[in-house]
Amino acid sequence: MKSRYTNQQTAPDDAPEIGYVLKAFGRTSETFITNEIHLLESLGAKLTIFSIKKLESQRRHGVVSRVTSPVIFLPEAEPVNETGFLKWLLLTLPRFALVHLKLFSLRPMNYLLTLFEALRFCFRYRSRRFVPKKVFVKEFLQAGYIAFEAMEAGAIRHLHAHFCHGATTVTMFAGRLSGLPFSFTAHAKDIYLDELNPGDLLSLKMSRAKFVVTCAGANRRRLEKICPPHTPLHTIYHGIDASLFEPSEDVGDAGVAGPQVPLILSVGRIVEKKGFDYLLKACHRLRRQGRDFKCLIVGGADKHSETIERLIGELRLEDTVAAQSSVTQEELKRIYERATVFALPCLVTDNGDRDGIPNVLVEAMAMKLPVVSTDISGIPELVQSGVNGLLAPSRDEVRLAEAIAALLDDPGLRRRLGAAARARVLHSFDSKRNTVFLKNLFVECLNAQSDAVATTAESEVTAQ
Hints:
Number of strands: 13
Strand content: 5-15%
Number of domains: 2
């Protein structure tokens, strides 16, 4: 079906809207979502953003300020596991009570059926035999707020969630409460960690969704095993804004025209799956070989930070390795320009957590940086070893050090891989082009829904 406003840059005032449900709008580590929203707006899509949490003290990328869609922040809900359930309910319920009363009066049957399902989930998906999983009550309350706001707005015709655990559960409940169809994007650990979608919960969500999107072919192969045949499943690479991450003409090859001391750069939250432990061990080996270089790790502190700090001390790398907290995209571009090599030795953790295709890897390649990563998950879909980067086995600091050394020693190799890296990004990971496909999926859903409403109305008139 042809889009009614596919080629328009500005949607008509009465165009149907999409409700975008996010865990937290503007999160520093989720720039790919904010960029997607901005690009959808530029393509003429009308959005209302629902943010389950409101973040404080976050570094805000420039793209956040360019988003023009209204953002609705939900009332704060206390963490369910920090107090007893009754105390939690007394603290949280008053913040949602009025909206839920109104919602019940509008759609009493849908309300009761959805409430019953949320309570059933508490027992069906519990991790301990006699302890209900209370998070579904919180997600029901949050879903009611979104459902009522969507119904009040009137123009919202479709809901879409990012990450297939909590945000999608909320969206699925909201869709049932309001009668709106929904879809979702599945990313990384939300797909692979069973605790985030226990039992058949993810398969249930997929069965009810109008379509499902994921950001890597490796993820799609995983999801295909549980995806019902009637639910369309699409792979859409997030990509990056290639015009923002474009190397300056006067920078040249960092190993030649850049710093005298080579800089090995790595970027990401300080979590185990990024493989920073192995990067430090590789740096230790390179130091023992007598190489002179610096290593910079840029990323927000997380639960693995203490391990990394301790390892830096144990390996006596204090004068070689530095850490820097999260920065904006604009600041990060300037850091890329200083780097000689980009290294991100991702791994699969013991509980199955992993990256899909790290956006920082795409950004570095767009900047013509020679990259070293590992052959896990969706990374080989981006990096072809020896062609546009180098891949080493995960958890192997010896091979990792060898790959980094090869790049440090050979400016010609750096230059060749860097040029091929940017070409690869422009071919398949340009977010402006990839977002068009996602926008057309939304338009197809909106058009199909409008046609169904029109057909129903025509049938009612004929019957009269």
